[in-house]
From TrEMBL:
Keywords assigned: DNA-binding, Membrane, Transmembrane, Transmembrane helix
Chain ranges passing through the membrane: 158-179
UniProt DNA-binding residue ranges: 37-56
Protein's name in the database: TetR/AcrR family transcriptional regulator
Gene3D superfamilies the UniProt entry points to: Tetracycline Repressor, domain 2
Highest taxon of source: Bacteria
Origin species: Streptomyces plicatus
Keyword Protein biosynthesis: no
Length: 236
């Protein structure tokens, strides 16, 4: 058998990382951060346990990347769902509803994510997934009419993070509709834009337990060849 090409090996590596990201999101959402081990993530992903550290410095970095992937793909779906629009107010409303929707529908996962961001030894870890999320939010701010995106994007990010935190504080959570109303007031958005709390959630805004559409892990039911990094990890 002739050796696989570099492009095939690169695709296998990419899909291995995708499986690890998906497994991390699923397990932390099901069991919480502390109860989720790197071994359990590798087992769920069908990878060698050493492969996790081959791709990610540690569990916190892996989980941050995985949650940022979920956030950016959820936001992307919300912004691009039909009927598609370039109208700035509608896109801002969809962005707010998408992020608040994650706090409402995936509270364990988002609470653990927020807690990780506040840990001094790790904190906020820039990664490709976070950069994609930032690009979408910056574009949303620009389409909404900002004259200074470099100033207004960080403010939107801070307001969304604050709203998610407020919605998830154990014992004293604020209702998502109240937080939505404050954000809509700040950005001068009509209540009926986006996905109002009493409206049926369209595609891209409901809590789907199948997250595979967010992670390019290959064709379902068709086994993939082994990632060359997997063999490296197994030999250590």
């Amino acid at each position: 058998m002739s050796p696989r090409s570099a492009s095939v090996n690169e695709e296998l590596r990419r899909r291995s990382k995708e499986r690890l990201l998906q497994a991390a999101v699923e397990l932390v959402g099901e069991h919480g951060y502390e109860a989720t081990t790197l071994g359990a993530i590798a087992d769920r992903a069908g990878s060698a346990r050493g492969l996790v550290s081959y791709y990610f410095p540690g569990k916190r970095q892996l989980v941050q990347s995985a949650v940022h992937r979920l956030m950016h793909r959820t936001l992307e779906e919300a912004l691009e769902r039909e009927p598609r629009t370039d109208e700035g107010a509608e896109r801002m409303a969809r962005a707010i509803d998408a992020i608040l929707g994650l706090a409402r529908e995936r509270p364990v996962l988002m609470r653990q994510h927020m807690a990780g961001l506040l840990q001094a030894e790790v904190g906020f870890v820039p990664c490709p997934e976070q950069r994609r999320l930032a690009e979408l939010l910056r574009d949303t701010v620009a389409r909404h009419g900002s004259r200074d995106v470099d100033r207004d994007y960080p403010m939107l990010r801070a307001l969304l993070m604050g709203a998610v935190f407020a919605a998830l504080v154990p014992g004293v959570p604020m209702p998502v509709p109240v937080l939505r109303a404050e954000l809509f007031k700040r950005y001068r958005l009509a209540w009926e834009l986006g996905v109002p709390p009493d409206a049926a959630a369209p595609g891209g805004t409901s809590c789907d337990t199948d997250l595979s559409r967010f992670f390019a892990t290959g064709v379902s039911g068709r086994p993939l060849p082994q990632d060359p990094a997997d063999r490296t990890a197994q030999s250590k």
